[in-house]
Amino acid sequence: MPLHKISDFDAEYHTTVQGEDIKGMNVHSQGNGEKIGSVSDILVDEQGKFRYLIVDLGLWIFGKKVLLPIGRTRTDSGANQILVNMTKEQAENLPEYKEGMPLDYDYEEQVRGVHRTRPLDAASTAVGNVTSPTYNRDTYNYEQDRDLYDVSDHEDQTFKLYEERLVANKQRQKTGEVKIGKHVETDTARVAVPLEKERVIIERVTPTDAGQAVAPGVANFREGEVARLEIHEEVPDIRKEAFVREEVRVTKVTEQETVEAQETIRREELDVNTDGRPVIDKPNSI
Asked: 4-153, which class in CATH?
């Protein structure tokens, strides 16, 4: 009867087995509530039925892992923990589980031998005054140890009903960006500047007293410079200066919108099937 880790048997077991993931749960003694370790993994048979919890006994026996038959456990969903019916002496007597080891009939028998508390009624043999069960590796079936593997044998069972709800959250993500830059354009500008230039006009005219003699000593005959005039003109002085043409203001504003989403959600309801006339008390029904 090959055994498989639950994730190897069904990679999507989280969706097929609803509720809290047992892997990683703390394990406590059902007798005194003492924490003894945690669930490392789960082993199922070829039909996917839970058979063992792989329990790391770190708080009882450091570094030791053992197999615990599922019938020796009870899940306390409210406290998110596993309660086990096992003593420390039993834990010490259990064969150690190691990753990759073969889980054959002989190994399971060692595990079952530690946990068995009563002989089988239908398959037992008498040896003197001692009654002991008979097991056969070729015909063995887990039904022969219902007390170890059948969780329905427990009188008290606690489970949860689950429902799905839509949970709306907001996530900020980048949808784009605006980059603002500048570039230079060139143009030809023209400007007109009126300029003034001085020029000299020399006129030779005949005076009104031409032909008349001048008094002695008035005529001053000489050579060389007799007059000086400075000539001026305006020349253009054109240069470029930078001026503020306009201002550009860049701001962000936040707009709000409401987005509606619609999904199909599931809810578990309780179905109670009765046989006969049992008395059912549901004081905490909603």
From this structure: alpha beta
pLDDT tens for 113-151 read 998 864 433 333 333 444 455 678 888 888 888 888 887
CB 66 within 8 A of CB 55: yes
The set of residues, in sequence order, having a beta carbon less than 8 Å from that of 235 and lying 6+ positions away, is: 195
Distance CA 96, CA 125 (A): 30
Contact (CB, 8 A) for 131 and 121: no
pTM of the model: 0.48
Say how far apart CA 228 and CA 200 lie, in whole Å.
Answer: 11
Closest listed residue to residue 147, CA positions, set 61, 72, 258, 41: 72
**CA triplet 125, 126, 131: central angle to 5 degrees?**
90
Closest CA to 39 of 31, 50, 49: 50
| Alpha carbon distances (Å) from 197 to 148, 201, 234 | 124, 13, 6
Which helix (H) or strand (E) covers residue 113, if one does?
helix 105-115
* 230: its two tokens: 């400075």
Contacts within 8 Å (CB) and 24+ apart, 106-111: 106/137, 108/67, 109/135, 111/52, 111/66, 111/67, 111/69
> What is the C-alpha separation between 160 and 270, in angstroms, rounded?
10
Say if CB 82 and CB 39 are below 8 A apart. Answer: yes
- Give the domain ranges of the chain: 4-153
Q: Tokens 């059948």 map to which residue?
A: 150
